[in-house]
Amino acid sequence: MPQPLRLLQGNEACAEGAIAAGARFFAGYPITPSTEIAEELSRLMPRVGGTFIQMEDEIASMAAVIGASLAGAKALTATSGPGFSLMQENIGHAAMAQVPCVIINVMRGGPSTGLPTDPAQGDVMQARWGTHGEHSIIALCPSSVEECFRLTVEAFNLAERYRTPVVVLSDAMVGHMREGVALPLPEELEIVERRQPNCSPEEYRSLVSTVDNILPRPPLGSKFKVRVTGLVYDRQSGRPDTATPAVAQELGSYLRQKIYCHAAEIVRVEELCMEDAEVAIFAYGSVARAAKAAMRWARRSGVRVGLVRPITLWPFPTAAVERMARQVRTVIVPEMNLRQIAWEVQAAVRGAAEVVDYGRIDGRLITPEEIQELIKAQFYYHHWEA
Amino acid sequence: MSALIDERRIEMPSQPHSPKIRPRSTEEITRHLITPKTIWCPGCTNGVVLRAIVDALLNLHSAPESTLDLDKVTLVAGIGCCGRIVQYLDFSSVHTTHGRALAVATGAKLADPQLHVVVVMGDGDCMAIGGNHLIHAARRNLDLTAIVFNNSIYGMTGGQMSPTTFEGDRSTTSTYGNVEQAFDTCELAHAAGATYVARGTTYNYLQLARLIAGGIAHQGFAFIEAMVICPT
């Protein structure tokens, strides 16, 4: 029997997704427009034997998530712009120390306090490069309530599989929007559990993670002595080594490769009507909803427009963009920031197609009509119905 | 100090109820060291606290009806000279970011209440950048043991003033004498709700080890200030 249809908010769906994925620890700090995730998890966590804690700030929230994850729990936090900025220090620690965890960032207008209750997509680059130093990250971008649920589950799976922090980049519109959704049954979901070593502690110490075989991390307090550090460490011994340049180079390359070498498995892109498209819209998150409506309007008007919607924003779906660029003459990139992803598209397109960017940072949604105008400019010879 | 603070008694773990310490031999202590090399300067007394921590753990572990499983000991450290302690010992450990050790420890302890979490911080780590985490960890009264190595200076960065540098003292960032007053770390921890507060020095080793053992045995937030010397 399918699950009953429920009227859920995007933020509530994220909370439900976290529980379904097996998350048993949440640490957070209230901030609009993500607060409902904390509220919902304060209700749900105790029911499944999990822990909810409201920390003193977002720095501490991210730190507590790292501590809980190292102790063996699937752990997450949820925040918005200013809080996400405060978390960057420890997101870097999680990337360096390879701590699986999930950060849900419900994007709002910025910088600073900005537009606290309005949607934006200004944090996409912060999600990629917010913490200092070379690192890699995975970021997923939901555009519906159901996707908030599914991508939160997927975020945990990716975090556990690649032992890395994963960011869910929701926004104030997706987070606060209500839709009727039938959540999938637990047996329909693929849940990746944290692997545990099946060897002795002595043998475990002699093993080293490779890109194709990322070693399981036993929890703190087990007979495996776990040593975690944010310093550059020797991957064999796990001990800090800041004096050997080759160790730092090797570790940095490994942290990058363990994500980028698996880009084909991590990256998901939705393509609509791309078979014969002359013009593509490249849109993500809530903007993709308007883009989809504009694309349908264009198709009804008889012009060949397609939609490419990155579900995974980081690592960037370069292969999909290259494929798109070989086919279309123009890529329209509407986003609720000023060119953050358009630059990335331009870099991947490498001149093979024209990139038209369109940005709004006034806290208003990009409407289908605005995207229609951009499409019209691309088909100026076409006779448009009034 | 003010009457408010005096209303509650600061527990003095040097009282008879605190654990007895039979100091372990150097051999027994060094068995838990994974390296003979430290980054500490000659004359630094951080090593004395390191030994006191191991001594306290071993004594608690071997006490009759002991519930302390050494596998469950987790050291959590911040950034600074003393933070390196976790790299020298063979216990599970997390070397966190500057000031955030108590917040990481909070998450670890809540996710696995069986852990014995010992948090190692410096004075700048705990009182300046991590000050907010300290007062909230104390307020929550979680079963954590926080040990602050207080040398009244930022040692690793070369001798800048810290929140525990005394008024008038000179440092590389208070070249004309510190104009600020110093924190009394124990009074702060007590006022914030810590249920075990102690101060020891590396001069009195046995007392320090006993205070640390008392803190680890204490059910609740234990705060131990270890006065150490920075020769740099």
In a nutshell, what does this entry contain?
The complex is a heterodimer of chains A (386) and B (232). By secondary structure, chain A is of the alpha/beta class.
Account of the 3D structure:
- The complex is a heterodimer of chains A (386) and B (232).
- By secondary structure, chain A is an alpha/beta fold.
- Chain A folds into three domains: 5-188, Rossmann fold (3-Layer(aba) Sandwich), CATH 3.40.50; 201-263, no CATH class; 269-378, Rossmann fold (3-Layer(aba) Sandwich).
- Chain A is 40% helix and 20% strand.
- Chain A has 14 helices and 16 strands.
- Chain A has helices at 10-21, 35-44, 58-70, 81-97, 124-129, 145-162, 172-176, 201-206, 245-260, 263-266, 286-300, 318-327, 340-349, 368-378, and strands at residues 5-9, 25-28, 51-54, 75-79, 101-109, 115-119, 138-140, 165-171, 178-182, 227-229, 269-272, 279-282, 305-310, 312-314, 330-335, 354-359.
- In chain A, strands 2, 3, 4, 5, 6, 7, 8 and 14 form an eight-stranded mixed β-sheet that branches. A five-stranded mixed β-sheet of chain A has the order 11-13-12-15-16, with helices on both faces.
- In chain A, helix 4 links the parallel strand 4 and strand 5 (101-109).
- In chain A, helix 3 (58-70) runs parallel beside helix 4.
- The mean pLDDT of chain A is 96.
- Chain B has 232 residues and is of the alpha/beta class.
- Chain B has a domain at 44-153 and 184-232: Rossmann fold (3-Layer(aba) Sandwich), CATH 3.40.50.
- Helices cover 34% and strands 17% of the residues of chain B.
- Chain B contains nine helices and eight strands.
- Chain B has a six-stranded parallel β-sheet, sandwiched between helices.
- In chain B, helix 3 packs across helix 9 (205-217), helix 6 (123-129) packs across helix 7 (131-140) and helix 7 (131-140) packs across helix 8.
- Chain B is globular and about 55 Å long.
- Chain B starts with a helix and ends in a 5-residue tail after the last strand.
- Residues 1-16 of chain B have low confidence and may be disordered.
- At the A-B interface, helix 3, helix 4 and strand 10 of A face strand 1, strand 2, helix 5 and helix 7 of B.
- Strand 10 (227-229) of chain A pairs parallel with strand 2 (92-95) of chain B, so a sheet runs across the interface.
